[in-house]
Amino acid sequence: MKNWVKICFFFLLITIFIIPLAACNKKEVLNVKVAEVTHSIFYAPQYVALEKGFFADEGLKVELTTTAGGDKTMTALLSGGADIALVGSETSIYVYAQGSNDPVINFAQLTQTDGTFLVSRNKIENFSWNQLKGSTFLGQRKGGMPQMVGEYVLKKHGIDPKTDLNLIQNVDFANIAPAFASGTGDFVQLFEPTASVFEKEGKGHIVASFGTESGHVPYTTFMAKQSFMKENKQAIEKFTRAIYKAQVWVKSHSAKEIAEVIKPQFEDTDLAIIETVVDRYKSQGSYATDPVLDEEEWNNLQNIMEKAGELPKRADYKTLVNTDVANKVK
């Protein structure tokens, strides 16, 4: 009888102490829906965070959706279809200018330069920007950051986009590369890996980088509605910490190592091309090394928008940028 009492007491202890302890140790998983403006090697640190399990380590389950275009990405965010958007910072300014009572806040920076390259149809040994004068230039969609940066760089080199060349801007983003491949334009502004693929196939030659020429800007950032950030502080902090871990990892590893990690995200792209693209972006400092968006970059962005005639009104840095979380995780 005494033995039976001891056994019952033993199992009672297990019930009281061990089972609740196991429940406490089980990390709560937070679901976060992220809409990215496009799926690009330009966003390598985000994919490193996914593939290396940095989000999972923070107790996050990230549902990533490609929304193909700044307008669609912002619509997903504003409608609640996404919790966080990865898109150009200019979109938050457009929303702010429309008088939103729940502004979109930039809280973590991913890329800090333009990601496009100038591709020439013909091989040029000694390129100079003056060679674009009188040419047909196939540019990016009007109102987007690539187009604004493109025009900013042209003007920087004394080229008036409206009078010094034939500027084509009425081609949809998805059709720009095919249009150039079919014979439209002497020069084209392209993202990677298309630019490197064209060079490998002999369809074009990379002659300059818009990212190098334009300087640092908050080209692509993670943003969320102000209300979401207030109501989900823990999720935002965990998300930002995972991104920062990935940024540190990318900074300290080779292009080859990064390419191998993110290859599952780009199954149809050769590993060698991925490595070339990562190396190109790393070399020109496109990947932000921490998530803090500083005020100088913010002002440079608005100056570029203003010179392109696309800035509806200037937005104060502290109004649309929150660096509290980014600084905390650093």
TrEMBL record:
Keywords: Signal
Cellular component terms (Gene Ontology): periplasmic space
Keyword Signal among UniProt keywords: yes
One Pfam entry name: NMT1_2
Gene3D superfamilies associated with the record: Periplasmic binding protein-like II (3.40.190.10)
Superkingdom of origin: Bacteria
Intracellular or extracellular location(s): Periplasm
Family statement: Belongs to the bacterial solute-binding protein SsuA/TauA family.
Protein name: Binding protein YtlA
Native species: Bacillus methanolicus (strain MGA3 / ATCC 53907)
